[in-house]
Specification:
Number of helices: 3
Order of helices and strands: EHEEHEH
Number of domains: 1
Distance between the termini: 14 Å
Strand content: 5-15%
Structural class: alpha+beta
Mean pLDDT: 84
Helix content: 25-40%
Radius of gyration: 14 Å
Oligomer: single chain
Low-confidence stretches: none
Amino acid sequence: MMPSALGLAVKTDLQRCRNHDAGPGVGPIISHVRSGRWSFLVEPNIPDDTALFAEMFRLNVSIVRTGATIALPSPSDRGELFRRWIHLPPCDFRPSGLTVIDSIRACAARTTWRSIPMSAPGL
């Protein structure tokens, strides 16, 4: 989970399929409307590494551990007031968690994502 502005930058980066193994696309992304955060559903290959978790914490990124429950958008969310799909899961593809981490690092190194207004379309 990450701030929506960073999420948009990561989504764009993954769609460009930088020079890494991004597979066929970005995979499913959920917007948590009220908190202004996005969740990327990924393959659970992120190591349980304190230094990595601390690095992501400094970027306001939370890594949900394998086996945790993630609430998905549903028709009962009263008009998408709580959660909505930014990118629907077109198939069972999930990008590598490490690929998304690499993209977060690349986007965080660029400061342009910080200037994206929180009210931008799709956020």
